[in-house]
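Students often ask what a holo structure prediction actually looks like on paper. The answer is less mysterious than it sounds. You provide the chain, you provide the ligand, and the output is a string of C-alpha coordinates encoding the 3D arrangement of the protein together with adenosine-5'-triphosphate.
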Amino acid sequence: MAEIRVNHLKKNFGDFVAVRDSSFTVKDGEFFCLLGPSGCGKTTTLRMIAGLELPTDGEILLGGDDVTFRRASERDIAFVFQLFALYPHMNVRANIGFPLKCDGLSSSEIRRRVEETAQILRITDLLDKPVSGLSGGDRQRVALGRAIVRKPKAFLMDEPLGALDSEFRHVMCGELRALHNRLKATTVYVTHDQLEAMSMADTIAVMNNGLIEQLGSPREIYDRPASLFVADFIGSPSMNFLDTHAALASGASELAIDGTKIGIPAMRVSVSESDLVLGVRPEHVSLSDQSTLRGEVFGVEYLGTTQIVTVTTKRGMVRARISADMKASLGEHVGLSFRPEKLSVFDKSSGRVLKSALHEGGVHG
Ligand code: ATP
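The corresponding C-alpha coordinates follow.
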Protein backbone atom coordinates (compact mmCIF):
# COMPACT_ATOMS: atom_id res chain seq x y z
CA MET A 1 0.00 0.00 0.00
CA ALA A 2 1.12 3.58 -0.49
CA GLU A 3 0.66 7.16 0.62
CA ILE A 4 -1.22 9.48 -1.76
CA ARG A 5 -0.17 13.12 -1.84
CA VAL A 6 -2.10 15.78 -3.70
CA ASN A 7 -0.48 19.22 -4.12
CA HIS A 8 -2.39 22.29 -5.29
CA LEU A 9 -4.64 20.29 -7.56
CA LYS A 10 -6.87 22.28 -9.92
CA LYS A 11 -9.36 21.30 -12.58
CA ASN A 12 -11.16 23.60 -14.99
CA PHE A 13 -13.80 22.49 -17.48
CA GLY A 14 -13.65 25.44 -19.89
CA ASP A 15 -14.35 28.52 -17.76
CA PHE A 16 -15.84 26.47 -14.97
CA VAL A 17 -13.57 25.73 -12.00
CA ALA A 18 -14.51 22.30 -10.61
CA VAL A 19 -11.53 21.90 -8.22
CA ARG A 20 -9.82 25.10 -7.06
CA ASP A 21 -6.66 24.34 -5.11
CA SER A 22 -6.71 21.07 -3.24
CA SER A 23 -3.82 19.82 -1.15
CA PHE A 24 -3.97 16.81 1.15
CA THR A 25 -2.11 13.66 2.09
CA VAL A 26 -3.71 10.25 2.52
CA LYS A 27 -1.36 8.34 4.79
CA ASP A 28 -0.36 4.78 4.00
CA GLY A 29 -3.20 2.56 5.26
CA GLU A 30 -5.57 5.43 5.97
CA PHE A 31 -9.32 5.53 5.23
CA PHE A 32 -9.82 9.03 3.81
CA CYS A 33 -13.25 10.45 2.85
CA LEU A 34 -13.97 13.27 0.43
CA LEU A 35 -17.32 14.56 1.72
CA GLY A 36 -19.52 17.33 0.37
CA PRO A 37 -22.73 18.19 -1.46
CA SER A 38 -23.43 17.28 -5.05
CA GLY A 39 -21.23 19.18 -7.53
CA CYS A 40 -18.53 20.24 -5.04
CA GLY A 41 -15.75 18.44 -6.97
CA LYS A 42 -15.36 15.13 -5.09
CA THR A 43 -15.59 12.82 -8.10
CA THR A 44 -13.38 15.07 -10.22
CA THR A 45 -10.71 14.95 -7.49
CA LEU A 46 -10.97 11.16 -7.29
CA ARG A 47 -10.84 10.78 -11.08
CA MET A 48 -7.64 12.86 -11.18
CA ILE A 49 -6.06 10.59 -8.55
CA ALA A 50 -7.14 7.57 -10.59
CA GLY A 51 -5.70 8.98 -13.82
CA LEU A 52 -9.09 9.21 -15.53
CA GLU A 53 -8.96 13.02 -15.69
CA LEU A 54 -5.91 15.23 -16.27
CA PRO A 55 -5.43 18.09 -13.79
CA THR A 56 -5.28 21.67 -15.07
CA ASP A 57 -2.56 22.29 -12.48
CA GLY A 58 -0.96 20.64 -9.45
CA GLU A 59 0.61 17.25 -8.84
CA ILE A 60 -0.28 13.80 -7.54
CA LEU A 61 2.26 11.57 -5.82
CA LEU A 62 1.65 7.88 -5.20
CA GLY A 63 4.10 6.26 -2.80
CA GLY A 64 6.43 9.22 -3.43
CA ASP A 65 6.34 8.85 -7.25
CA ASP A 66 4.93 11.67 -9.35
CA VAL A 67 2.05 10.02 -11.25
CA THR A 68 0.31 13.23 -12.36
CA PHE A 69 0.66 12.44 -16.05
CA ARG A 70 0.73 8.65 -15.85
CA ARG A 71 -2.07 6.64 -17.42
CA ALA A 72 -4.66 5.04 -15.12
CA SER A 73 -3.38 1.57 -16.02
CA GLU A 74 0.13 2.53 -14.86
CA ARG A 75 -0.92 3.71 -11.40
CA ASP A 76 -1.77 0.39 -9.75
CA ILE A 77 -4.90 1.79 -8.13
CA ALA A 78 -8.26 -0.02 -7.94
CA PHE A 79 -11.23 2.21 -8.71
CA VAL A 80 -14.63 1.06 -7.44
CA PHE A 81 -17.40 3.15 -8.99
CA GLN A 82 -20.41 1.16 -7.98
CA LEU A 83 -20.10 -2.13 -6.19
CA PHE A 84 -22.95 -3.52 -8.27
CA ALA A 85 -21.08 -3.42 -11.59
CA LEU A 86 -20.42 -7.14 -12.25
CA TYR A 87 -20.13 -9.12 -15.49
CA PRO A 88 -23.53 -10.87 -15.63
CA HIS A 89 -22.47 -13.76 -17.86
CA MET A 90 -19.66 -14.88 -15.51
CA ASN A 91 -19.85 -16.70 -12.19
CA VAL A 92 -18.45 -15.26 -8.97
CA ARG A 93 -15.04 -16.90 -9.38
CA ALA A 94 -14.60 -15.52 -12.91
CA ASN A 95 -15.78 -12.07 -11.86
CA ILE A 96 -13.25 -11.85 -9.04
CA GLY A 97 -10.44 -13.35 -11.11
CA PHE A 98 -11.07 -11.20 -14.19
CA PRO A 99 -8.48 -8.46 -13.45
CA LEU A 100 -5.80 -11.09 -12.82
CA LYS A 101 -6.68 -12.81 -16.10
CA CYS A 102 -6.27 -9.44 -17.87
CA ASP A 103 -2.85 -9.09 -16.19
CA GLY A 104 -1.88 -12.50 -17.66
CA LEU A 105 -1.40 -14.41 -14.38
CA SER A 106 -1.33 -18.22 -14.51
CA SER A 107 -4.56 -20.07 -13.82
CA SER A 108 -3.14 -21.67 -10.65
CA GLU A 109 -2.10 -18.22 -9.30
CA ILE A 110 -5.52 -16.80 -10.19
CA ARG A 111 -7.20 -19.69 -8.39
CA ARG A 112 -5.06 -19.17 -5.27
CA ARG A 113 -5.64 -15.39 -5.14
CA VAL A 114 -9.39 -15.67 -5.82
CA GLU A 115 -9.81 -18.22 -3.04
CA GLU A 116 -7.78 -16.12 -0.62
CA THR A 117 -9.94 -13.08 -1.46
CA ALA A 118 -13.17 -15.06 -1.10
CA GLN A 119 -12.03 -16.15 2.36
CA ILE A 120 -11.37 -12.54 3.42
CA LEU A 121 -14.87 -11.59 2.26
CA ARG A 122 -16.47 -14.80 3.61
CA ILE A 123 -17.98 -15.73 0.24
CA THR A 124 -16.13 -18.99 -0.48
CA ASP A 125 -19.45 -20.85 -0.76
CA LEU A 126 -20.55 -18.51 -3.56
CA LEU A 127 -17.50 -18.93 -5.80
CA ASP A 128 -19.12 -21.22 -8.39
CA LYS A 129 -22.53 -19.54 -8.41
CA PRO A 130 -23.76 -17.22 -11.18
CA VAL A 131 -23.82 -13.56 -10.11
CA SER A 132 -27.36 -13.12 -11.43
CA GLY A 133 -28.95 -14.88 -8.45
CA LEU A 134 -26.99 -13.09 -5.71
CA SER A 135 -28.46 -10.72 -3.12
CA GLY A 136 -27.47 -7.04 -3.25
CA GLY A 137 -25.02 -7.46 -0.37
CA ASP A 138 -23.32 -10.50 -1.93
CA ARG A 139 -23.03 -8.73 -5.29
CA GLN A 140 -21.27 -5.90 -3.49
CA ARG A 141 -18.88 -8.28 -1.77
CA VAL A 142 -18.02 -9.86 -5.14
CA ALA A 143 -17.38 -6.46 -6.72
CA LEU A 144 -15.21 -5.53 -3.77
CA GLY A 145 -13.38 -8.85 -4.20
CA ARG A 146 -12.56 -7.91 -7.77
CA ALA A 147 -10.83 -4.78 -6.47
CA ILE A 148 -9.06 -6.49 -3.53
CA VAL A 149 -7.73 -9.46 -5.54
CA ARG A 150 -5.30 -7.24 -7.46
CA LYS A 151 -3.62 -6.08 -4.23
CA PRO A 152 -3.33 -2.54 -5.62
CA LYS A 153 -1.44 0.33 -4.00
CA ALA A 154 -4.70 2.07 -3.11
CA PHE A 155 -8.48 1.84 -3.42
CA LEU A 156 -10.59 4.69 -4.74
CA MET A 157 -14.33 4.36 -4.14
CA ASP A 158 -16.99 6.67 -5.53
CA GLU A 159 -20.29 6.52 -3.62
CA PRO A 160 -20.14 2.69 -3.62
CA LEU A 161 -23.14 2.35 -1.30
CA GLY A 162 -25.26 5.02 -2.98
CA ALA A 163 -27.81 2.60 -4.43
CA LEU A 164 -28.63 0.88 -1.13
CA ASP A 165 -31.44 1.65 1.28
CA SER A 166 -30.30 3.41 4.43
CA GLU A 167 -30.51 0.41 6.77
CA PHE A 168 -28.41 -1.85 4.57
CA ARG A 169 -26.01 0.99 3.88
CA HIS A 170 -25.34 1.16 7.59
CA VAL A 171 -24.56 -2.58 7.68
CA MET A 172 -22.22 -2.27 4.67
CA CYS A 173 -20.42 0.69 6.28
CA GLY A 174 -19.63 -1.57 9.23
CA GLU A 175 -18.40 -4.32 6.88
CA LEU A 176 -16.26 -1.96 4.81
CA ARG A 177 -14.62 -0.52 7.90
CA ALA A 178 -14.00 -3.99 9.35
CA LEU A 179 -12.46 -5.03 6.04
CA HIS A 180 -10.30 -1.92 6.07
CA ASN A 181 -9.11 -2.72 9.59
CA ARG A 182 -7.91 -6.10 8.31
CA LEU A 183 -6.40 -5.04 4.97
CA LYS A 184 -5.10 -1.61 6.05
CA ALA A 185 -5.44 -0.49 2.45
CA THR A 186 -4.96 3.18 1.60
CA THR A 187 -8.51 4.18 0.65
CA VAL A 188 -10.08 7.36 -0.72
CA TYR A 189 -13.85 7.19 -0.43
CA VAL A 190 -16.23 9.74 -1.97
CA THR A 191 -19.61 10.35 -0.41
CA HIS A 192 -22.17 13.09 0.14
CA ASP A 193 -23.48 11.21 3.18
CA GLN A 194 -22.02 12.61 6.40
CA LEU A 195 -22.99 9.52 8.39
CA GLU A 196 -21.00 7.25 6.06
CA ALA A 197 -17.98 9.53 6.34
CA MET A 198 -18.26 9.97 10.09
CA SER A 199 -18.65 6.25 10.75
CA MET A 200 -15.82 5.01 8.50
CA ALA A 201 -13.16 7.66 7.97
CA ASP A 202 -9.88 8.23 9.77
CA THR A 203 -9.71 11.63 8.05
CA ILE A 204 -12.42 13.63 6.30
CA ALA A 205 -11.94 16.41 3.74
CA VAL A 206 -15.13 18.48 3.67
CA MET A 207 -15.46 20.05 0.21
CA ASN A 208 -17.58 22.96 -0.95
CA ASN A 209 -17.53 24.67 -4.32
CA GLY A 210 -14.29 23.02 -5.45
CA LEU A 211 -12.45 23.89 -2.22
CA ILE A 212 -11.52 21.88 0.85
CA GLU A 213 -13.19 23.71 3.74
CA GLN A 214 -11.70 21.51 6.46
CA LEU A 215 -9.47 18.48 6.86
CA GLY A 216 -9.62 16.54 10.09
CA SER A 217 -10.76 13.49 12.02
CA PRO A 218 -14.54 13.00 12.34
CA ARG A 219 -14.30 14.25 15.93
CA GLU A 220 -12.36 17.39 15.02
CA ILE A 221 -14.78 18.22 12.25
CA TYR A 222 -17.80 17.70 14.47
CA ASP A 223 -16.45 19.40 17.59
CA ARG A 224 -14.43 22.17 15.97
CA PRO A 225 -15.95 23.08 12.61
CA ALA A 226 -13.69 25.52 10.76
CA SER A 227 -16.50 27.29 8.93
CA LEU A 228 -20.23 27.92 8.94
CA PHE A 229 -20.50 25.59 5.95
CA VAL A 230 -18.90 22.66 7.79
CA ALA A 231 -20.86 23.38 10.97
CA ASP A 232 -24.10 23.30 9.01
CA PHE A 233 -23.24 20.31 6.80
CA ILE A 234 -22.13 17.98 9.61
CA GLY A 235 -24.59 16.83 12.26
CA SER A 236 -28.24 15.92 12.22
CA PRO A 237 -30.11 17.99 13.18
CA SER A 238 -27.47 20.52 12.21
CA MET A 239 -25.94 23.17 14.45
CA ASN A 240 -28.08 26.09 15.64
CA PHE A 241 -26.90 29.54 14.54
CA LEU A 242 -27.66 32.79 16.39
CA ASP A 243 -26.67 36.12 14.83
CA THR A 244 -25.28 38.99 16.86
CA HIS A 245 -23.24 42.14 16.34
CA ALA A 246 -20.34 42.64 18.74
CA ALA A 247 -16.67 43.30 19.33
CA LEU A 248 -14.58 40.64 21.09
CA ALA A 249 -11.29 41.13 22.88
CA SER A 250 -8.72 38.35 23.02
CA GLY A 251 -9.50 36.35 26.17
CA ALA A 252 -13.19 37.35 26.16
CA SER A 253 -15.42 34.54 27.37
CA GLU A 254 -18.87 36.08 27.00
CA LEU A 255 -21.02 37.21 24.11
CA ALA A 256 -24.28 39.16 24.42
CA ILE A 257 -27.35 38.14 22.46
CA ASP A 258 -30.47 40.26 22.99
CA GLY A 259 -29.14 41.42 26.35
CA THR A 260 -28.41 37.89 27.56
CA LYS A 261 -24.75 37.20 28.30
CA ILE A 262 -23.73 33.82 26.96
CA GLY A 263 -20.54 32.06 28.07
CA ILE A 264 -18.20 31.04 25.23
CA PRO A 265 -14.75 29.41 25.11
CA ALA A 266 -12.06 32.06 25.76
CA MET A 267 -11.24 33.85 22.51
CA ARG A 268 -7.72 33.66 21.09
CA VAL A 269 -8.24 36.61 18.71
CA SER A 270 -9.72 40.09 19.00
CA VAL A 271 -12.33 41.30 16.55
CA SER A 272 -13.64 44.79 16.12
CA GLU A 273 -17.39 45.42 16.02
CA SER A 274 -18.73 43.00 13.38
CA ASP A 275 -21.49 40.56 12.54
CA LEU A 276 -20.88 37.32 14.38
CA VAL A 277 -22.68 34.00 14.46
CA LEU A 278 -22.84 31.85 17.56
CA GLY A 279 -23.04 28.13 16.77
CA VAL A 280 -24.34 25.54 19.19
CA ARG A 281 -25.18 21.89 18.56
CA PRO A 282 -28.63 20.71 19.69
CA GLU A 283 -27.15 18.33 22.30
CA HIS A 284 -25.45 21.30 23.99
CA VAL A 285 -28.69 23.23 24.46
CA SER A 286 -30.80 22.67 27.54
CA LEU A 287 -34.11 24.05 28.71
CA SER A 288 -33.54 26.16 31.78
CA ASP A 289 -35.92 28.30 33.84
CA GLN A 290 -33.05 30.57 34.90
CA SER A 291 -32.01 31.73 31.42
CA THR A 292 -33.21 35.07 30.10
CA LEU A 293 -32.78 33.85 26.51
CA ARG A 294 -36.34 32.67 26.02
CA GLY A 295 -38.70 31.31 23.42
CA GLU A 296 -41.78 29.23 22.76
CA VAL A 297 -41.83 25.48 22.10
CA PHE A 298 -42.84 25.08 18.48
CA GLY A 299 -42.26 21.36 17.92
CA VAL A 300 -41.35 18.18 19.80
CA GLU A 301 -39.97 15.12 17.96
CA TYR A 302 -39.80 12.01 20.10
CA LEU A 303 -36.84 9.79 19.09
CA GLY A 304 -36.88 7.08 21.74
CA THR A 305 -33.93 7.88 23.98
CA THR A 306 -33.89 11.60 23.15
CA GLN A 307 -36.30 14.18 21.78
CA ILE A 308 -35.69 17.21 19.59
CA VAL A 309 -37.45 20.28 20.95
CA THR A 310 -37.71 23.24 18.56
CA VAL A 311 -37.99 26.62 20.24
CA THR A 312 -38.76 29.88 18.39
CA THR A 313 -36.74 32.80 19.72
CA LYS A 314 -36.29 36.42 18.60
CA ARG A 315 -33.16 35.19 16.76
CA GLY A 316 -34.87 32.31 14.96
CA MET A 317 -35.39 28.61 15.70
CA VAL A 318 -33.20 26.81 18.21
CA ARG A 319 -33.29 23.03 18.45
CA ALA A 320 -32.40 21.22 21.66
CA ARG A 321 -31.72 17.50 21.90
CA ILE A 322 -32.81 16.57 25.41
CA SER A 323 -33.58 13.37 27.26
CA ALA A 324 -36.85 11.74 26.24
CA ASP A 325 -37.82 11.68 29.95
CA MET A 326 -37.98 15.47 30.19
CA LYS A 327 -41.28 17.20 29.68
CA ALA A 328 -41.67 19.80 26.93
CA SER A 329 -45.09 20.89 25.69
CA LEU A 330 -46.08 22.75 22.57
CA GLY A 331 -46.66 26.45 23.24
CA GLU A 332 -44.74 26.39 26.53
CA HIS A 333 -42.41 29.35 27.22
CA VAL A 334 -38.93 28.12 28.08
CA GLY A 335 -35.46 29.50 28.76
CA LEU A 336 -32.46 28.17 26.84
CA SER A 337 -28.96 27.63 28.12
CA PHE A 338 -25.85 26.45 26.27
CA ARG A 339 -22.71 24.56 27.31
CA PRO A 340 -20.12 27.34 27.01
CA GLU A 341 -17.12 25.11 26.31
CA LYS A 342 -18.90 23.61 23.30
CA LEU A 343 -19.85 26.80 21.45
CA SER A 344 -18.26 28.11 18.25
CA VAL A 345 -18.19 31.75 17.16
CA PHE A 346 -18.00 32.54 13.44
CA ASP A 347 -17.25 35.71 11.54
CA LYS A 348 -20.37 36.15 9.43
CA SER A 349 -18.73 37.83 6.44
CA SER A 350 -15.90 35.31 5.92
CA GLY A 351 -17.85 32.35 7.32
CA ARG A 352 -14.70 31.23 9.19
CA VAL A 353 -14.58 30.25 12.84
CA LEU A 354 -12.88 32.61 15.31
CA LYS A 355 -10.05 30.92 17.19
CA SER A 356 -10.90 30.11 20.78
CA ALA A 357 -9.85 27.78 23.60
CA LEU A 358 -11.93 25.15 21.78
CA HIS A 359 -9.19 25.02 19.12
CA GLU A 360 -6.41 24.13 21.51
CA GLY A 361 -7.37 20.47 21.53
CA GLY A 362 -8.08 20.30 25.24
CA VAL A 363 -11.84 20.61 25.20
CA HIS A 364 -13.61 17.41 24.27
CA GLY A 365 -15.71 16.34 27.22
P1 ATP B 1 -21.79 14.44 -7.55
O1 ATP B 1 -21.84 13.57 -6.36
O2 ATP B 1 -23.08 15.07 -7.90
O3 ATP B 1 -21.07 13.81 -8.74
P2 ATP B 1 -19.30 15.79 -7.05
O4 ATP B 1 -18.95 16.54 -5.84
O5 ATP B 1 -18.67 14.45 -7.23
O6 ATP B 1 -20.87 15.68 -7.13
P3 ATP B 1 -18.11 16.42 -9.59
O7 ATP B 1 -18.72 15.26 -10.31
O8 ATP B 1 -16.69 16.36 -9.25
O9 ATP B 1 -18.96 16.73 -8.28
O10 ATP B 1 -18.41 17.73 -10.43
C1 ATP B 1 -17.97 19.01 -10.01
C2 ATP B 1 -18.50 20.01 -10.98
O11 ATP B 1 -17.82 19.86 -12.23
C3 ATP B 1 -19.98 19.86 -11.28
O12 ATP B 1 -20.56 21.14 -11.38
C4 ATP B 1 -20.02 19.15 -12.60
O13 ATP B 1 -21.18 19.51 -13.35
C5 ATP B 1 -18.76 19.67 -13.26
N1 ATP B 1 -18.21 18.69 -14.20
C6 ATP B 1 -17.79 17.44 -13.89
N2 ATP B 1 -17.31 16.81 -14.99
C7 ATP B 1 -17.44 17.68 -16.02
C8 ATP B 1 -17.11 17.64 -17.42
N3 ATP B 1 -16.55 16.56 -17.95
N4 ATP B 1 -17.38 18.74 -18.14
C9 ATP B 1 -17.92 19.85 -17.60
N5 ATP B 1 -18.24 19.97 -16.29
C10 ATP B 1 -18.00 18.90 -15.50
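The mean pLDDT is 91.
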